[in-house]
Amino acid sequence: MTTLTNRPADPAELVLEQHRAFRDELLAARLLLSTGIDGLYLRSDRFERIVRGIDAMVSRAGAGTAEETLHFPLLMPREVLERTNYPRSFPNLTGVVSGFSDPTADHAALVQAFDSDDRASWTNLLRPSDLALCSAACHPLYPTQQGTLPAEGRVVEVFGQCFRREPSIDPARMQSFRQHEFVYLGNAEGARAHRDAWIGRALELHGRLGLSVEAVNANDPFFGRTGRLLAASQLSNSLKIEVVAPIAAPSAPTAITSANLHLEHFGEEFGIHTATGQVAHTACVGFGVERIALALLRRHGLDLTGWDPQIRQELAL
User: Fold this and answer.
1) Distance (Å, whole) CA 266 – CA 162
2) Is the pTM of this model over 0.85?
3) Are 272 and 266 in contact (CB under 8 A)?
């Protein structure tokens, strides 16, 4: 006789199933609509209303701190991407736009490939353009800040669209998403003060929305062997602090806000200096507005009319 025993589920498999289940709930409710590509969704108006409310709330939290507010598209010059060194650290997440713009290119060959059984082969005839997909909302800002900063430094509020080539069934890990940031440029002390102040603001903001959050020391997902050393350095120097919340999988909370010290990396590359002539330090806080919206839907339910009235008022829902 065979005796059946209950074996504990593999933790990774359990998380995967929780991601899939929450994604399916969102799709069934038509808050998100599938495109057939993991991590790429169409958004309903109900979902966008939540995002607009979050954006407004974040702007209120930073009212009076920013010298300027800028809105950036998904595309930026490829040169800017290269100067940030992003492809060196995250080649697996990087996106560059390719096109058929070479006048000597063989159009007949492209059409033949397009009409073939292997339709995707036509893309092999495209060439990289001078455009890249923006990987972090603050990256297009730095070329505009070249030169000398005011004595007190500068804070800029940024709304940006971003791309990371990271297909996943986790609805919180989108390939196309938005970040709402407050970026500081100035001296080292100002950068750290900016970063630390925004950690407190973020915790308070998320708490008002009824989310269970905590701030944790974190690192970026650097690629390769050298990347492991960079990640270790980032952790040991507490350069990246994430505010995490449970979304699809309670055992694997997701970063919904990130506060980062960049040291002199962008100041040196883009020629940004303090009023005293030193290379500028930079810091940013980035709110992942789609992730916050998903955390709210997970916490309060998919029917917005059932949310706590105070939270609905906060978000103007």
Assistant:
1) 18
2) yes
3) yes
Pairing of strands 240-245, 254-263: antiparallel
Residue-level pLDDT at 295: 98
Distances (CA, A) of 158 to 31, 151, 171, 180, 258: 26, 21, 24, 6, 14
Average pLDDT over residues 88-100: 93
Element of type H or E holding 125: none
Distance CA 295, CA 175 (A): 17
Helix segments in the chain, DSSP class H: 11-28, 45-61, 78-83, 86-89, 107-114, 188-208, 224-236, 265-269, 289-300, 309-314
Which residues make Cβ contacts (< 8 Å) with residue 143, sequence separation at least 6? 80, 83, 270
State the DSSP code for 279. B
Instruction: Go through the domains of the chain in sequence order and give each one's CATH number.
Output: 12-94+135-314 (3.30.930.10), 101-128 (no CATH)
